[in-house]
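Sat 14:20. Reprocessing the chain from the morning session after the first attempt stalled halfway. Input below, unchanged.
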Amino acid sequence: MDEALWALGRGTGVVGLVLFSLAVVGGIVVRSGAPLPGLGRFGAARLHRDIALLATVFIGIHLVSLLFDSYAQLDVVDFFVPFLAAYRPVWLGLGTLAIDLVLAVVVTALLRHRIGARVFRFVHRGTYLLWPLALAHAIGAGTDAAEPWFLATVAACAVAVVAAVSWRLVLRARERRAADPVAPVERPRARVGVAS
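Finished this time. Tokens:
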């Protein structure tokens, strides 16, 4: 039974990381205002939300399966208070911090209409911290960290997120330049009627 729980915990953790990476990329696309081909802005926002929800479900399964796995030696407190776990406390602590941020994002998403868009956006930006914490957790706590398939998966996730963030920064820089163009420098006018 422990082997099955361990395999379930590992598998759902990797799938959760992939889905969270896709959710981050989707969120960056949605925030940019660029529509996805065939989806439009509303469809892109819905896809982003659904992928993030699915990622949260997989991470929930990841946590529950490892809670009941005797090899992982986790307690419920390890899911909320970082760096207390008996097994790889630093790496599991990073995962705990990521879970705390996931909970904050989920709660603010559910209360978005009550707390306002400004608070929602502020907390939602925590995903820029959540994602690297989850990535570091996966690399440091995962028992498959040296496996080629795992390294390829992590590399693909990293490339996708870094590319999306880079694209968004370039797009934002272009938007700022277009909104605030530098005034052209006037050339000095030739004086008429002045002898040299």
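The first helix runs from residue 2 to 32.
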